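In this section we turn from sequence analysis to structure. A common task in structural bioinformatics is to predict how a protein folds when a small molecule is present, because the ligand can shape the pocket around it. The inputs are simple: the amino acid sequence and a SMILES string for the ligand, here pyridoxal-5'-phosphate. Study the lines below before reading on.
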Amino acid sequence: MLTSQSLALFQRAQESITGGVNSPVRAFRAVGLTPLFIQRGAGSHIWDADGNEYIDYVGSWGPLILGHAHPAILAALRETMAGGTSFGAPTEREVVLAELVKEAVPSVELVRFVNSGNEATQGALRVARGFTGRAKVVKFEGCYHGSVDALLIKAGSGATTLGVPDSAGVPAAVAETTLLARFNDLGSVLELVEQHPGEIAAILIEPIPGNMGVVVPELAFLRGLREICDREAILLIFDEVMTGFRVARGGAQALFGISPDLTTFGKVIGGGLPVGAYGGRRDVMSLVAPSGPVYQAGTLSGNPLAMAAGIATLRALTEDVFAELGRNAQRLMEAWAAAAKAAGIAIQTAQFGAMMGFFFTERPIRDYADATSHNDTRRFAAFFRGMLEAGVYLAPSAFEAMFLSTAHSERDLDQTIAALGKVFATL
Ligand SMILES: *Cc1c(COP(=O)(O)O)cnc(C)c1O
């Protein structure tokens, strides 16, 4: 596989863009390669700068549930942009997208659109703090909520549950407002709640973690969080930036029948344009400016092009579409497990709607400690390179999810499954 054009572009990029990329995982460091520069996409396929073609299971890291360059999205964008790209004033499309979100996710009574998932979690956390008058937030090791200061904290030693920043530049004073619990471990949450009575504004969680690999949540654990929040007047925030309109039309909260107080969205609701949103209970969201004292604003928030892409995407995602996505994803992950088994390699797979993942281990993965200590990342890197050579583009890290789109055809799946058979046999 020739990738000299990508390499030349990467070298050039490093002269003017820090690290050569505008988001770290794109650099391919975890798999010992340099990034492919992508020239174009159509449906389920992408082409790199050297003309190599791949079946794409990244989908721009989640947004592209309809595939690349979907005709309905392109048509909506063309029609919208002919009338101007931004006004910084309200437009009807914002109302339409808000109504679509509310209809699909009943826990959302009021919503605010922003430009990224990052901004959504930041806004949700601020309004939770404003509503409760409390400062602390419980988050879970291994859950990712964007590069927001207070949420860039994942690893604490067993002894201390106070947050230690994961990044330079996060002040200790900010990190101290973040309390770390373990996913699927209600006891670790109860301990924090007992140690910090009346201080916790919110419990923030990816209801199905997708940023430490895809981890299966225990229903009793998620239900337990709801009960703790009700008892302690803590707000439960589901970060559905990845899972919203991805694992089901109504997101993870629809799958599990649990109603959070606030929800954050991103990725799919922007159909490939920069969008995020946060929303939830009317009494909480009413505190956001201008109706309340919690300030949050954005020059390009509710941008017409982004709203148009989101509307086209959500309108296409009917229950029937999700049923088919789920069937295809299940078929793929069953084949994934079978191909590994045939090669004598132990893996764990997970699949919820059109979100999929796997770990190279024989042990079930319940939390971040399991994911980081048992997942064979060297084997993943070899697997990744083999699949890439075979024309299958996966996320370049052993701790990312895979995404299926409506554009993935039977033929794509057959080709992927054939590649799996070959590549697992080489590991
Ligand atoms: C991607 C992601 C974010 C951040 O969204 P951006 O649009 O990248 O800022 C936040 N939370 C979760 C669960 C995500 O997967």
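The domain at 71-316 is CATH 3.40.640.10 (Aspartate Aminotransferase; domain 2). As an exercise, try to locate the residues that line the pyridoxal-5'-phosphate site and compare them with your own expectations.
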